[in-house]
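Handoff note, outgoing to incoming analyst
You'll be picking up this chain. Sequence as last confirmed:
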Amino acid sequence: MRRVSGPLIHADADAFFVSVALRGRPDLAGRPVVVGDPVVACASYPARAAGVRSGTGITEALRTCPSLVVLPVPGEEVEQVSDELFRILDRAAPAVEPGSMEEAFLDTSALGWAEVEEQARALRREVRERLGITVTTGIGRTKLFAKLASRTAKPDGLRVIGPEEERRLRTTLPLADVWGVGARTLGRLHALGVSTLGELAGVPVHRLHELCGTTMARRLRQVVEGCDDAEVRPVRSRQTLSAGTATVGWGRADRSPAELADVVCRRLAHRAGEAGLVAGTVTVSLAREGVPTEHRRARLDSASAEEDLLRRCVAELLAAGAVPLVDTLTVTLSDLSATDRPRQDPLF
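Most recent structure output, in case you need it:
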């Protein structure tokens, strides 16, 4: 584990799916907007202020906010913007650790605090100018405090948690604000009368292990002692490449999984080509209301990412048996390898 005093950046795109969908819709600026169907995949900040949350059914969301605007998830555009976002992040730091397709930690530990803050400002400007979306950045000595800084600066903000504030927070920070601590662990600690990091320091190590398990107990002790994770672990090479879309959509005709195969395979072939990658295995995943229902997998005779071959493979997998009632189809390429002329490797 890295023990240095230099700060890290946590960069997190704001309401990513909605922000991408709104890039060409200035008429919807400031209005409550969600993307998704049959459930909300992402809600804009005005929609959140009106009480709409991700995971809520669209019908319920419209009851909560009758003025809500519902848009389809712009799947292909989201993938393209994510790829470009990570190209920007990769240029900004020697090591980047993705947390999802719209957030990452950047290793800026070799720089001073003022330099890192200016770099974060420049990063936010570049993302806004090049991609037309906003990204919030948080700066802290460890991942916990960099992520806490970005989370509390949203949307479209920048916050620095410097050494002095970090020392104070290691005593006063509520456990509910500690990244990665779940409801069950919180409940057990609250039952002991422990609700802040300072109170946690008084819990004997063996008792903490009994309550939280070895891994979480070790992590919490590290947070209390100020030696929590500050290492940025870059993804050296990606293991899979996926694209998916919905069979249903708000305000459009429903489509069968077979009808989606061409769209998804075209997107995957394009992204694999841009990354200079070929695949040895193709997997079709079917889901309903967010719950996976079936996975079908095939090995390719030779590694490829040709669109026509992917389309035939997916069609054969779908024809191999009755397709259950689903609302989402995802195709994943795995066993990836580089072609002779690799280009930019997207992280998602």
